[in-house]
Amino acid sequence: MAYGRCMGLMVVDEGMYGQYRRAMAPYLQRHGGSFRYDFKIAETLFSETPEPINRVFVIAFPDKAANDAFLADPEYLKVREAFYKPSVARATTLGVFGG
């Protein structure tokens, strides 16, 4: 069964976040993952949390083990440290599917 999550981000550096997305793509593909949806948010009408978001995406993997392997991949973690951390102020899990 497919496993994935819907995430909300506050991206503070679009250029660097774009570099992150390009650099992480080979590792995502290596673990069978893909982006199903990706949105830039112009206006939030309601949120359970006070922290604003400006990006929403759905990422999916064949199963939870593939998701976990991706998140633990040492090469992916280097990309995350270099590009994601400086470009994203916060991340909120909006939902999880599969199992």
Can you walk me through this structure?
The protein is an alpha+beta fold and 99 residues long. The radius of gyration is 13 Å and the shape is globular. The protein has helices at 14-30, 64-72, 74-87; strands at residues 3-11, 34-40, 55-61, 88-97. The chain contains 3 helices and 4 strands. The N and C termini lie close together (7 Å). Helix 1 (14-30) runs antiparallel to helix 3 (74-87). The longest helix is centred in the N-terminal third of the chain and has 17 residues, at 14-30. 12% of the residues are buried. It has a 4-stranded antiparallel sheet with strand order 2-3-1-4. The mean pLDDT is 96.
Characterize this entry briefly.
This protein is an alpha+beta fold and 99 residues long. It has helices at 14-30, 64-72, 74-87, and strands at residues 3-11, 34-40, 55-61, 88-97.
Question: What labels describe this entry?
Answer:
99 residues; alpha+beta; 3 helices; 33% strand; globular
Please, what is the average pLDDT? 96
Terminal-residue CA separation: 7 Å
Total strand segments: 4
- Envelope shape: globular
Output the strand order for the largest sheet.
2-3-1-4
Largest sheet: 4 strands, antiparallel
Question: Topology of this protein?
Answer:
Elements: E1 3-11, H1 14-30, E2 34-40, E3 55-61, H2 64-72, H3 74-87, E4 88-97
Antiparallel strand pairs: 1-3, 1-4, 2-3
